[in-house]
Design goal:
Blueprint: H1 2-20, H2 36-41, H3 45-62, H4 68-89, H5 97-115, H6 120-138, H7 140-144
Helix pairs in contact: 1-4, 3-6, 4-5, 5-6
């Protein structure tokens, strides 16, 4: 019980610190999206999306541009979004796709803003992976396999 209370406290501190941090304005970036037909010639598109997710998780864990508390805050936000996507795929009426998209975009923009200066390769990868990540979350079959 004490351990759970400690984790709740850590998440609350992380949320407070993240909320009090100034967020840099994100300049619009033109992103070239993958052509699904071309990508399918090189393998299953859904497998590529899952590979993108694995690569992104690995890079986020390894980056030195984000501290441990901020990484916990990001994980907390992503876990909440995934829980809401589970409810969305289970046909929960209270959750709208537009609301999920706004939260998804906010997480992507926040993480991009945090890593852009110190880890530009990760920021670039995140921007390029965004359409694939969104498609993975939207597909009920692939989402259930996560």
């Amino acid at each position: 019980m004490r351990q759970k209370g400690f984790l709740v406290w850590i998440c609350a501190v992380a949320a407070f610190l993240a909320a009090s941090m100034p967020v840099a304005a994100v300049e619009p970036v033109e992103v070239a999206t993958k052509n699904t037909e071309l990508a399918s010639k090189f393998g299953d598109v859904s497998e590529q999306r899952e590979g993108t997710l694995r690569t992104l998780k690995r890079q986020l864990r390894r980056t030195k541009s984000v501290g441990v508390v901020t990484k916990l805050w990001i994980k907390f936000r992503i876990d909440g979004l995934i829980d809401d996507f589970k409810a969305y795929h289970d046909n929960a009426e209270a959750i709208e796709l537009a609301q999920l998209r706004r939260r998804f975009d906010h997480i992507i923009d926040t993480v991009n803003g945090l890593v852009r200066e110190d880890d530009p390769a990760l920021a670039n990868f995140l921007i390029q992976a965004e359409p694939d990540l969104w498609a993975l979350l939207l597909n009920p079959k692939r989402f259930s396999d996560l």
